[in-house]
UniProtKB/TrEMBL annotation:
Keywords: DNA-binding, Sigma factor, Transcription, Transcription regulation. This is Sigma-70 family RNA polymerase sigma factor. Coiled coil: none annotated. It comes from the Bacteria. The lineage of its organism: Bacteria, Pseudomonadati, Bacteroidota, Flavobacteriia, Flavobacteriales. Residues 28-90 form the RNA polymerase sigma-70 region domain. Residues 124-174 form the RNA polymerase sigma factor 70 region 4 type domain.
Length: 183
């Protein structure tokens, strides 16, 4: 059985609430990532599988049964993605189902968005360079080249859902770097 607070966030996420998606990502990212890091012994692969896990979970959120543990459900998805990747033996060309898309709502800028737009450009670029290259790329394409999710998806040859999850994660990591720098 899950907590009432978690159930509320899941229900909001099912309706497309951006803050609820962010809450789920922020609260469960490290557990899924650590699980995959132990399995793969590779940071890049673990991160990619974690992105795919959240992408798939967000698409299939309606199938989650509240009578079970949310983290167990995420880990099961993550484990299955890893097994599929091993079977295909080509991590770089494996993608989440391209037909499934989540409608993330960007109605109001998040705190991360505000931090990004308020920072001095040259200072911000230095902070962005601290991110891993694939996060730098999605930040660059979205905020400096102002590409749409679809255009980014085509450019980096990944599904839109992966782009959205990577961008959420990149913004969170960048916000943490900015907060650490200002502390």
């Amino acid at each position: 059985m899950i907590s009432e607070q978690l159930e509320q966030h899941i229900n909001k996420a099912k309706k497309g609430n951006q803050i609820a998606f962010k809450y789920l990502l922020d609260n469960y990212w490290s557990q899924v990532y650590k699980f995959q890091l132990k399995r793969t012994q590779n940071e890049y692969i673990a991160e990619e599988i974690t992105v795919q896990t959240f992408s798939k979970a967000f698409v299939k959120l309606d199938t989650f049964d509240v009578n079970y543990s949310f983290i167990t459900w995420l880990i099961a998805i993550s484990k299955n993605i890893h097994i599929d990747l091993i079977r295909k033996k080509s991590i770089e060309t494996t993608y989440v189902d391209r037909k499934a898309e989540v409608n993330f709502i960007d109605e109001n800028p998040t705190a991360e968005d505000q931090l990004i737009t308020e920072q001095n450009l040259s200072h911000l670029l230095q902070l962005i360079k601290r991110l891993k290259p694939h996060y730098q790329e999605v930040i660059q394409l979205r905020y400096f080249q102002e590409l749409t999710y679809k255009e980014i998806s085509e450019k980096i040859e990944e599904p839109i859902t992966n782009v959205k999850v990577k961008l959420l994660r990149a913004k969170k990591l960048l916000a943490e770097i900015i907060k650490d720098k200002n502390s």
